[in-house]
Each structure stands twice: as structure tokens, then as C-alpha cells.
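B., you asked whether I could sanity-check this one before it goes into the benchmark set. Here's the sequence:
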Amino acid sequence: MWHMDARPPLPNTRYTRTAMAFHWLLALGIVGSFLVGVQMVDMKMSVLRLQLYNWHKWAGVCILALSALRLLWRLTHRPPEDVPMPTWQRRLAHAIHGLLYLLFFATPLVGWAYSSAAGFPVVLFGLFPLPDWVAPSKELAAAIKPWHGGLAKAMAALVLLHLAGAFKHHFWDRDGLLRRMWP
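And here's what the prediction gave me:
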């Protein structure tokens, strides 16, 4: 059985509850949006497919807003002390986190631009029409579409690396790192 009681974390190594809430809400939104995105693109045209596209867009807007709030929180609140680890691991972790933050913004923004170019406006929760980023253009939509998918796949790969690092620290190093973000 998996327990969260590897060596207890060092003092001042836990994130705040607000930071944890941002982390886990974004994790759920990103994983859910990715899974829906993978499923919906291969479906035949149907009411369900259109509903999934809308849900995917709404999730993207929420991910964008949560990412902005999370970044604002991170810039105004000092993170906990790092657990001891080799310099190369710390640099890799910081690089992965930086790229994840970049993709938290780039992926939904490119998706929004694609939706605008394709002529399908984003109407948040079916109630709040959001402005189009670009004028409708089939050529532009065709050029943007692969970028959204590619960014989403890059984010998925980085999320897997992030998870692998967390599990390595928990199960191999037993250094309490995973507990920093565990509620």
C-alpha cells in the first residue's frame, strides 16, 4: 500500500493550502481537458462531439484563468524551501516547472486563436461570449490547429516527467518531497 509517510518533510517545505488548491485544480483541469481533447477529435459529428468541444473550450478558459491566478500567487508568495537534492535535479525540476507554466498559458491561448480562426467563438458556459483573437480564416485555422495539439502533447509529456520526478523522490529517495504538495 502506498503511504504518504516517507520521511517527514523538513520544516517550511510545504506549500500553502492556496498553492495546493491551484496545483490540484489545474492538474484535474489539464488532465480532463487533454483526455476530452484526445477523444473528441476522432469522433464523428454529433451532439456529443459538439458538447465535448464546448466543455474543452470552457476548461481551457478556466485553465487560463487559474494559471494566471496561480502565477500571481506564486509571484507574491515565497515557495517553501527545497528538499536537498543534486544541483542537476533541481535545475531540471525548475526547467520543467518553467516550461509547464509557459504551456499553461500558450496551449489555451493557441486553442482560443484556433477556435476564433475556425469561426467557432468561445462562449464560456454557454453564457459569456469571449472576444475572438483573430478574424475567421480557414488558412490560419489550418496553420494554428497542429500547434494547439502539439503544445498539448508537450504539456502531457512534461506532466509525465513531473509525476516521474515526484514518484522518484517519494519511493526511491524517500525525502518527503511529494508531501510538499499533498493536502
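One thing to flag: The longest helix spans residues 138-173. Otherwise nothing jumped out at me.
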